[in-house]
TrEMBL record:
<feature type="domain" description="CABIT">
    <location>
        <begin position="20"/>
        <end position="205"/>
    </location>
</feature>
<dbReference type="Pfam" id="PF12736">
    <property type="entry name" value="CABIT"/>
</dbReference>
<dbReference type="GO" id="GO:0005634">
    <property type="term" value="C:nucleus"/>
</dbReference>
<dbReference type="InterPro" id="IPR039671">
    <property type="entry name" value="THEMIS"/>
</dbReference>
<comment type="similarity">
    <text>Belongs to the themis family.</text>
</comment>
<dbReference type="GO" id="GO:0050852">
    <property type="term" value="P:T cell receptor signaling pathway"/>
</dbReference>
<dbReference type="InterPro" id="IPR025946">
    <property type="entry name" value="CABIT_dom"/>
</dbReference>
<dbReference type="GO" id="GO:0005737">
    <property type="term" value="C:cytoplasm"/>
</dbReference>
<protein>
    <submittedName>
        <fullName>Thymocyte selection associated</fullName>
    </submittedName>
</protein>
Length: 220
């Protein structure tokens, strides 16, 4: 089996959470205080060849680009307990399939896990039609008889309609504008699509190019 060495930063940004736990073998390096290897407040170092079992990854801070009118943008680190509420700006880049959406965003029964999208063209589905530019929420991801699909909820005149869309369904899908406010922790947990950057606003400051910075590995 071919083995490839990579930095921990590359590993944490590329690994799928569902693929954990994973066993890593240390190749080289000494890790100083403040790194992911700071254990119980002390510097930690691992020997070459030592095996590490990674059981989880947590986001502890964000790297963001701040933009203010008339000023140059600056890049700063923000901890997840940064105070205040944020609004997000809808991503203008389209998704090309339902599968791409499912692979990028969080979908769950919780309100924060029900992203909203629209399609410029009609979606002809077994249960009926979602009209062009009509918004729909993704409320659940289900697999039946080996076939995966999402449940979509459309509200029409205070009446909710449920549609089923296969992951293989292709087209142009855009994120809807969101008028809700979120804490920084909620943005990290629910509203930063995988593989994409997120733009948001806090007071009069525009926060762009948000990167998750994984500085916490849970090791067994």
């Amino acid at each position: 089996m071919k083995r490839m060495a990579m930095t921990l930063d590359t590993f944490t940004r590329s690994v799928e959470a569902k693929s954990l736990p994973r066993v890593l073998q240390m190749q080289s390096g000494y890790y100083f205080q403040g790194s992911v290897y700071e254990l119980y407040g002390r510097e930690g170092s691992f020997s070459c060849g030592e095996l590490l079992k990674v059981i989880g990854i947590s986001v502890t801070r964000l790297i963001v680009e701040l933009q203010s009118e008339g000023s140059k943008s600056i890049t700063v680190d923000l901890s997840l307990d940064y105070p205040g509420l944020f609004r997000i700006v809808a991503d203008k880049r389209p998704y090309t399939s339902i599968k791409e959406i499912v692979d990028s965003v969080c979908i769950s029964p919780e309100c924060l896990g029900q992203p909203e999208f629209y399609c410029p063209k009609k979606l002809q589905l077994p249960e009926g039609t979602i009209q062009a530019e009509e918004s729909f929420k993704l409320t659940a991801l289900r697999t039946e008889h080996g076939d995966s699909h999402v449940d979509c909820e459309v509200t029409r005149k205070d009446s909710k309609h449920i549609f089923t869309v296969k992951l293989s369904h292709t087209g142009e899908f855009y994120e809807c504008a969101d008028d809700q406010f979120y804490t920084l922790g909620e943005l990290v947990e629910w509203k930063i699509p995988k593989g994409r950057k997120r733009t948001g606003t806090h007071c009069n400051i525009i926060i762009t190019n948000v990167h998750e910075s994984y500085t916490g590995l849970r090791l067994l």
